[in-house]
Amino acid sequence: MKLIGLISPNYSDDTMTEVYKILPEGVRIEGRALDVGTYTDSEFHRVEQLFSQIVRDLVVKPLDFLMITGELFLSYKGPGSDRQVLALVKEITPIPASTVLTAVTGACQTLGPKRVVMASPFPEDQDARLIRFLKHDDVDVIAHRCLGYQNSKTIWALPPETAYDLASALLRQHPDVDGLYMPCNKWRVVPVIDRIEKEFGKPVVTNTQAWVWEALRGMGMARSIPGYGRLLSNPQ
Q: Residues 81-110: what's their mean pLDDT?
């Protein structure tokens, strides 16, 4: 049995149902929530003050890997902030760790996309931060569309088809891009990853898919997991 520690603004039993669709047998999650209410700097700052203690509480468990998710929490301090977060974690624990945005940029490097479109459930100002973050790591978002939602509860209620519709419209408008990125683990995009890739022939990188890929590699468990896009079906 392998145990992944997960720190996430969106940690809940519902979200974990989506994660366990992807995870291979023998891997479990021990999670802690950051409880971001709305996507504002004051909320991100508040949870930032709690972050170190949450890490200390979680690493008491016999973890094999620690993953920090929440693209907006990670990007609100600017490009490269994932390195700062991981440096702080390293001061607390020797357990191997990564972040979802580290995983996303690593996935893009592995699959090859440098010019992508981004379909997002977030507001415009939060998308702008994500775009700057990705640009810092040589992933160029040449176009994006957002749904403008301000909290994860609303996003969770959206059907997967909303992700397909937004993504497919972008890919039809920009057929020359290298791939697609869809953030937010509360947006239930997992069921449409394979469909988008097969229809448009472009690799898709998403939140849950990318961090699961990163964690499995970090634990020496990289393996083919079909049905959730090229990233997991052909692990490298």
A: 95
Q: Cα Rg for the chain, rounded, in angstroms?
A: 16
Type of residue numbered 101: L
- Domains identified in the chain and CATH numbers: 2-101+209-233 (3.40.50.12500), 103-205 (3.40.50.12500)
DSSP code at position 64: S
Query: Is residue 177 within 8 Å of 114, Cβ to Cβ?
Result: no
Question: Rounded distance, CA 81 to CA 216, Å?
Answer: 23
**Amino acid in position 56:** R
Task: Encode pLDDT of 61-78 as tens digits.
Answer: 999 999 999 999 999 888
Q: How many helices (H) and strands (E) does the chain have?
A: 11, 8
pLDDT at 14: 82
CB contact at 8 A, 131 and 75: no
Q: Which two tokens stand for residue 162?
A: 């909303």
